Structures are given as structure tokens and as C-alpha cells.
Amino acid sequence: MAEHTVTFDIVSEPVQVKTGTLLSETAQLAGIDLNQPCGGQGRCGRCALQVTEGSVRRRSTIRLSDEDLAQGYALACQSVIEGDIKIAVPPQEKIERLLTSDRTAAEITVPPGYDYALDQDIQAVPISLTPPDMSDQTDDWGRLSTGLRQQAGIDQVQISLGLLQKLGKILRAGEWDVTAILDMHPTDQPLSTPRLIDVIPGKELIPPPLWAAAIDIGTTTVTVWLVDLITGQVRAQPAQYNQQISRGEDVVSRIIFAGKDGGQENLRQLVLTTINELLEVACKRVKTDPPLVTTDIVKATVAGNSTMVHLFLGIPPENIRIMPFTTTINQVPNLTAQEVGVNINPEGTIDCLPGVASYVGADITAGVLSSGIDDAEKVTLFMDVGTNGEIVLGSREWLVTCACSAGPAFEGAGVAHGMRASKGAIEDIWINNENLEPTFRVIGSVKPRGICGSGLIALLAEMFLTGVIDKGGNFNSNLETPRIRQGGHGWEYVICWGADTGHGEDIAITHVDVDNLLRAKAAIYAGFTVLAESVGIPLDWVEQVLIGGSFGKYINVEKAIEIGLLPDLPWERFQFLGNTAVRGAYLALLDSQARERVKEIASRMTYIELSADNTFYDAFISAMFLPHTDLSRFPSVEAAITNKE
Amino acid sequence: MAEHTVTFDIVSEPVQVKTGTLLSETAQLAGIDLNQPCGGQGRCGRCALQVTEGSVRRRSTIRLSDEDLAQGYALACQSVIEGDIKIAVPPQEKIERLLTSDRTAAEITVPPGYDYALDQDIQAVPISLTPPDMSDQTDDWGRLSTGLRQQAGIDQVQISLGLLQKLGKILRAGEWDVTAILDMHPTDQPLSTPRLIDVIPGKELIPPPLWAAAIDIGTTTVTVWLVDLITGQVRAQPAQYNQQISRGEDVVSRIIFAGKDGGQENLRQLVLTTINELLEVACKRVKTDPPLVTTDIVKATVAGNSTMVHLFLGIPPENIRIMPFTTTINQVPNLTAQEVGVNINPEGTIDCLPGVASYVGADITAGVLSSGIDDAEKVTLFMDVGTNGEIVLGSREWLVTCACSAGPAFEGAGVAHGMRASKGAIEDIWINNENLEPTFRVIGSVKPRGICGSGLIALLAEMFLTGVIDKGGNFNSNLETPRIRQGGHGWEYVICWGADTGHGEDIAITHVDVDNLLRAKAAIYAGFTVLAESVGIPLDWVEQVLIGGSFGKYINVEKAIEIGLLPDLPWERFQFLGNTAVRGAYLALLDSQARERVKEIASRMTYIELSADNTFYDAFISAMFLPHTDLSRFPSVEAAITNKE
Fold this sequence. Notes:
- Two copies of one chain form a homodimer.
- Chain A is an alpha+beta fold.
- Helix content of chain A is about 30%, strand content about 20%.
- In chain A, the strands form seven sheets. In chain A, strands 11, 12, 13, 14, 15, 16 and 17 form a seven-stranded mixed beta sheet that branches. The first copy, chain A, has a six-stranded mixed beta sheet with strand order 28-27-18-19-20-29, sandwiched between helices.
- Chains A and B meet through helix 5 and helix 6 of A and helix 5 and helix 6 of B.
């Protein structure tokens, strides 16, 4: 087969590839790490490169305007090499490292009454052994296990090969006084045999420092809480984008990427790198003498949606996106850090919290624990809208749950000028009713570069209430303002002219964007409807709405109700909880009874599969309007519209 | 520090080293793998190299004659580089790959009544699962574990991460019909949770092929028995020298080598390579369609002395040779093949049989099981004289054991012309009473190259009975034969003149050799004495003597009694059992009750530490004569001598 020379402007050496090679693979060969948020499906348009000499065969030109094509742009993941070419690589959007979760360093309250000795599965046990002599030649492990039995009443302890390899030296270094660190309950079986995590020479440090981590693997953001198990205090809580983002922004893109050659392992390494970096950062933030290192951490609980947990463990998630949408495992047995690849103590316990289904994972069971719905007297609606939208409805009597494939529109993906809630993002917006001119607030007080989730909700509400769009989301082209115009993707509304933006281009919202946002909000609202109907209660019986996830942190309830994303309930019933997943992981880490409760939550929750449900489809179609086809469901919005008219 | 150039004749590139570097390290740098049977202690003389230009500082010249020194020979492990030198590497003794255990391919009898379904811990369980659909989205692992519970009554199965990573594909490849391979009893606790070793698509193969291996890691020889678990038959039984031999011939040399930089890991890799090669060979010997591969093996039981087991597992054996002689572990928990590095199914069980003490290891407990002493009505003496000498005395009522540091003299080490029982070894010898001319038999019917253990015993007995040596082992220089002469190491007896040997050099036994053999036999006999005294019985109450190990296979009981190595009992009480360690490992592999019995044997045996025991020292000194200072202990020998006189 013929070979072709491909020259990239930012790389000195050209690469040789065969006819038919994808441009994205060619770039990878040349050492260029392209951003492929959609996982190489040709959906996002982020991997566009400019062909400056020669030509490529374009399988798809979606997301490229006629002008782009004229300039030679091609989607790297959709273009095939058929001859010698030269390529210019445009500067790609850089991910700003300023995260919402890092914006506030909230003090986390230790659960009242936390008692390390009673509640904690990890125990540090000081043991004094009699040194061996010619009249007692008992083997080292026999000596230590007898010590544990006689001095601490701990019988039948498990020891790993790794620890056996070090044991002789440790016992002698401590002159037969040692501190054993044990996981007293390493499996979720009642008669679980205690497992030795480490043995430390000496027994003076009482209580010894014992560190652990609660980890939430979000599709977008990974959060680590570093916990002192003796006091229960959270001592550091760094967060960082999940480095898998460059391989797809939503779970489906990640699953597709995982199916490619080497994709699975690449994604596993990316999330491990993210977690290991966060653990390093967390340890550096705590000042101890000697300095804390990640191997001082002896346990981690992990929350995350089912796809994230599968990728973290190197388990193929492929069946999660294929009917009938099954995971390989929902209740993962405890593993060791060494097996998984997390850089804490190699024998440290990795406890992945249990999930319920493909799209209701451990992030939700942890969220339920953290929000306390499973013990609530009031009928409670819990939602965690991150990259997916998961909803739980219930109380101490019953719990139903579903997952709406809302997509990441409210995280800025699938929207032309959408972006994450980082520096330069428009986070709130108002449109003047008279002249239709917008005012907005930008994160970081800089020139805007795009719009984040809360900004998009506000924008949709404002456009609807000022008549820029109608209840079907169609632009009103008859209004007298230059901001409503015909663009490359149909009608659009310009929020900020190029002269005033950070990148010099107009920031606008298009008809396609509005449609994506409508679908997202309709999916979530339809989820509420189906859950309420499944238990036969009207939505307004909901006595409290608890919103978890970074999504909820800065949104305006009024505006979210106006677009029909949230049900029309009195504002005081809404409460924003922040990252409930990591907080649930933290509670399960501290207290073995809380851990037991997550398991119970996972088995108590009734999962409603929406894609198998006609009710959902009908509810979705009805919710594709602003705020809804049935205006009587939104009396406060009805009143606002009527007042205006 | 100054650098010097060292040039080896067999390597093209010279190497640069600093002043003070050992010649052995320099050779290693140059890529030359020297034989160091004593572990680099300067004891064996095998690493001698010839300095052809320049000179080295010799720390020790033991084992080098004046002639050697004049020719420039130096022990690589004892010589320090202090200037530029050139080195000639003499062709080293090659290890012949013909082993005693490979000489006969004995048919092994399956224990009568073996029933795979009742006795075997490894079980293959066919399971038919209902495929998932939208009304049942149970996770793969939940589905399989429910299947195991409902269809086979197996509850709470453990699964590894490695298997979880493959599970989704396996279940679908088998279209939801699978065969689960389980270790039903993976720990020695009564309530041990079954562990999944593998899941194989399909369930047609009933019974499916199930393979396992019984492994004996000898200090000298490693033996593998490949077993079909369904029938219980041994299908191949290859043996090979333990590749660690090049790092020291006895356990003490190995322990010293393990203490060097990288030594521990080097020894681990060498024994793993030996085992993995034997597994390959074993699989090739069995003709199946498709061909058997090592990953078809799902379990291995391992016997070996404590040092061998520690080295196999990468556990430092250092304290085994330091007072008070402790191991790190005697009863190793089950491990997986992946953890240990054995190339069978990665999740296959590695079951190291339990040992008793530093010098009474799993080879002896397995030997006791195999020989059945623990259930014997007769007072039985069991000995396994391999590289070490371990002895067990007892019956179904009681068991005492000890280890005599006999050293490997009877394996040919520490004897100038000693060699292992391989091609070219003199294995039996007779000396003419009149002219003192020897006749001998050589393994492989070739010209002799040395003398192996059985030959040495015969030689010692013959020299004693013909008066070549006296009862103290001293040569009689007054006899009229050119065969008794003064050599480089004092008086010696020439067995074969250079003209008739395989290598052209005279084969002789020296005064030093005789002394080493006397020490070895005295240590073993003193062990018998101490054990008998510890339970208050005279040695001649012993009703049967069972001899295990390759050592015993070809020795002549009469001659062994004549030199006082074996107690003077009627010949019919002696029985040679061959490799009892591997046979014990095989029995424990087949039958969970036999495995339980080994554990019981290990805990029942009373270990007598000889080095803490004055009785032993006295007994040893008394036994340093031929056959013994107290001739009344050897009435048959007394009679023979009297007859002669």
C-alpha cells in the first residue's frame, strides 16, 4: 500500500503513513495530543486541523462551516490520508485549571460523635513481642499473629506476600515492638477476616497518624478529600479535571474511546494519574513532620458513576452503552491499592462504593447517604446533574431512581460557545426587556470567552421571558435588534460582540444550541415526572429538593424553574448540597455503619429504566417546550408570563 | 579513585572498574556468568580465573595449589582489582542435564479411591445464565454469582480484579453458558469463601480438563509432577537442576548470596525460570488436542525446604542462618500464581505446604505425609538426605524431628572430585583386598569424571575395610601401592589414573575429602542418636527406616552401615522411597483431607534444635569414627572387621 508524507507545522519531523490512515492517528504518531472530547466520533468539532498543502478525504464535515472548509479545515478524526499533505495545527482551547470546587475551601464538619475506636474499620494496634531465642524459634509471622491474638484479641489475620517480604526486617527494626495497621472488615461479609495493611516498627505513636482518602471520580472533575482517621477531619480537598476529558467529554464518548485499541488502558492511566496527582497535592497541603507522603494513606473510598468506576478498574464498560445496558459489576469487592494502581500504601484498601445500574452509580448511592434521603421523613427529590442527570425520589419508606441521558449541555458541551465554569465563563445574564441588550457576570472578572451552565440557564430563561425565543425555542426574527441574526447554523442571538470578548470572536447562542439545551432540560424534567408517576404521586408533593453536584452550586432556582428544568415548587424547598458524592465517600470512609448503609441504599433503590419506558418518551416530548406544554404545571411561570402580557 | 581496564579473553570489549572492585563483579559487568557454588565465600574454588597479564590482590588462596598460583590462578570472588589486567576464563565444569529422577519414568499410582468430585478442592462447575434484557439489567458478576448460588449451591464467591476485567467478554462469548473453575477451599480456615480461578465460555466439556502441578523445589533439583485432577493421574514428571545452583550449592551459600545487592531477586527469578521451564516441558509431554499450555494449569502445591520456599516467594531467608534460626513464615497462606510469578493460570492457587522450622521445611512434612509415618504403628525413622539431612522419628503416637547440618558432601560438593549423580560419575566401587586396586561402575558407561554420593559411601567403606584408611579416616602410608600418595592437599588415594578419565586428570580422594565425608555422616548419625535419646528409646527399637530424597536411591545399605552413616539394623528394615517431597505435594494436591493432614503433621512434629544441644555435639564427636567410637553400636561391622582380622 502506498505511503504518504504528512508534515505538521509544529513538529520538526514529518511522519510516514499508509493510504487510509486517519489524520488523528497520524497526529498521534507525530506526538501531537489532540483534544477529542467526543472520543473521535466527529461530533464535537474540536479536533479540526488545517490542511495547508495537498488534500484529505473527509468522511464527515459536521461542525465545519463552508468558510472552514474553504480554508482547508478538516476533522482529524474523520479525515483519511490519501496523499502527501502539510497540516497547520491551530492553538486548541486550553483547559483553565481554576475549578469551581477549588474556588471555596469550605470547612467540612466531622460527623458528630465520630469515635475512631468505635466507628473506624482501620485500626492501629501496638504489639510487644518477645524476641525469638533458641528455646522459642517460632517464625516471625506466627509470633506476630500470636501477639495480635493474645494482646488485641484479633484472630486469623490475613497477610499479603508483599508484607511477608518485609516482615522480618520490620520486626527487627522495631526490636519486636510494632504497630500493626489492620483493616478489621476487609469484605462486606459479616465474618470477614481482618487484613494486615502494614506493620510499622515501634509502638510509641499512640494514637499513630492514620490517613485515608475519599475520592469522587466525576466524568469532568475528580475530587479528593484527605482525611485524618483519628480525628475524622478533612485536612485537604483538592479537585482537578479528570484527565480523561481529552478522550471524550461524556461517558458515552469515553466508552467509545475505551473500545479502541489501547483506549481502555489509556483511560485507566489517565484517571489514575489524575488521582495520584491529587493525592500528592493533598499531602503537600497538610503540614506534618516528617512530611506526609501518599504511601502514608492506608485506605480510600471511591465514588463515581458506573462508567468511571469501570474505567478506573480497567473493566471494559462497553455493555453500559449497549442495550440492555449492563455493567460488569455494581458491588465491587475491596481491592488493594497495588492491584488498582493508586499510589497509596500498596496494601491499602480501595473500597469502591456500590452502584445500582449502568447509569445510577456509586456517585448516587454516596449522594443519597450524604443527603440522608434514605432516612428522610419528607418526600425528597435528589438530583445530581453533572455530566449525566441522575434523580432519586423517596424517603425512609421507599426510594426510586432513574438516569436521564441529559448530556453535558449544561456543562457547556454541545453548545457552540459553551464552556465549563472556569475563568472567562459568563455565569449569569440578564436581557433588557426593551432593547434586548444583555448584561452579564463573568467568572474571574475578565473578558468573556464563553458561557457556562448557570449562564446558559439564565440566558434561556431571559430569552424566553423577553420573547427573543418562543416557547418552542424558535428565534423571533421580527424583533428590532442586530443581536438576532442569521448565522452559520441558522438564527442566533449575540451575547457579546467580538470587540469585547477574550478571543475576539462574537459570543452567540444558536438555534441548535437552544435545541440541545431544551432536550437536556426536558430529559431531566421528564425524569422527575416518570419517577413521581411510578410511585403515583404528583410532583408537587415533593417536600424538599436536594441538588448535588457542581452543577447546582451557582444556578438560579427561579430561572431554572422558568425554563422548566426544575419543578415549580416554593424556592425554600430547594437546597444545594455541593459535591454529595465525595461527601458520601467521606462518611462511608469514617464509619463502618455508614458504609453498611450505602450497601443497603444500593439494594433498596428501585431503578426505573427510562429508555424502556413509553411514559418517559411522552413526558420528554411534553417537556420540550418552555417551560412545558402543560403550563398548569408551572403556575409561577404562568403568572409571570400573564403579568408581562 | 583510579580506574582500571580489565580484558577477558572470551569477551570482545574490555571493562573499566575502580580500584578495589572484586574480580567476580568485574566478570559480571563483562557479562560473564561465573559459577559460584559457595555463593562467593571463597570456599569452593570453582570461580578460579587465570590472570595472564598484570596482577590482582588475593584476599584468600584457599583451594588453589602452589602450581595454580604460579600459573596466575585467582579466585574471582576473593580477588581485588588494583591495576590493568588481562584474564583468561577457563572452561567451567558443565552441568550435565541427565538427572537421576529423569532416568526412570516410574508410573505413579493414583491413591486408591480418589474421587475428583469428593476429594478435590478445585471444581469445574457448569452454569447456564439467562441473558440480560431490559427487564433484568443485573450486572454480569451479580448474574454469575446468583447462578453459582442457585445452580450449584455455592455462595459468597470471591472474584479477582483480573477476572472481572475479562468477565463481560467471557459471559458473552459463551452466550451465557459458562464453566466456572473454583478453588472451594482457598484458605486453611474452615469457613473459607470459595474463590473463582477462571470462567470459561461454554459448558459442554463435562468433565472439563483440569490440570494442576505438584512441585518440589530441592536445593539441587526441582521436580514437577503434572496432574490430571479429574483422574488423579500424573501425566508428566520432569526434573531439572535448580538454576540457583550457580549461586551456591547449599542453602547457606544461597542465603549469603540472597543478602547481596540484587541477590534475593536474582535467586527468585532463577527458581521461577526453573519451574516455568519444567511446566513447559511437562505440558509438551502430554499429548492433547488442543495442545496443553501452562496456563491450563489452575493450581500448584509446593514442597521445599524453608530456605527454598522463602527464596521462591521473595521473602528474605537471612534469619534462617542467624541464631536463633528463625524463618519469616512456616505456614504460608495460599497465593495466586500471578503474585508469585509462576506461569500457570494467573489466578491459579499456589499452595506452599507448611514447614516446621528453619531446617525442617515443607519437604519434610510432605515426606512424612507421603511415607505415612504419622499413621505408622511401627516406630519409624524417616530421613531425607538431600543437600541437607533432615530426620523424623516417630509413629502415629508421636513425631520428633531434627536437621543435621550434614552439608552437601554426599552430593559431591566439598569433595575434590565429587560430582552429582550424572553421566560420568562413579556410582559404586570395590577395592581389591590384596592389591588395593579399585573396580568401579560409572553412570552412562563412559570414562569417569568424578564420584557421586553412592560412590563416595562405597569408597569410604571399601577404604576402611581394606585398611587404606583407619577408623579415624587417616591414610595408611605404609601400604605398598602407588595409589596411596602425597598430593597437593596431603595424602590421597587414586581411584582412576588420568589416562582413563574423561578429563585426563587423576581422580583421587584426599584426606580433606575423607574428613568432610566423616563430618557429614557423623552429623546424620548423631541426629539419629539425639532423636532416639529425646524420646528415651535405643536406636535398635526402630522397626523401619524410610529413606527419601534422590540421595537414597542408589546407595548400598550395607556400605552405608559399614561407614556408620545408617544405624546397624537388619537390611530388610530399610526402604527407599525416592522423592517423598514431590509425592507428598501430589497427595496434598489431590485430596483436601491429605492437605489437612500435612497441616496437622506440621503442628504435631516436635522440633529438636541440635545446635542448642550438647547431646548432639557429644554424639557427633563419637560418630566421627568409622563406623563409630562405640563399636558395639555396629555389631555387623564389628563382626566383619573381626572376621577379616
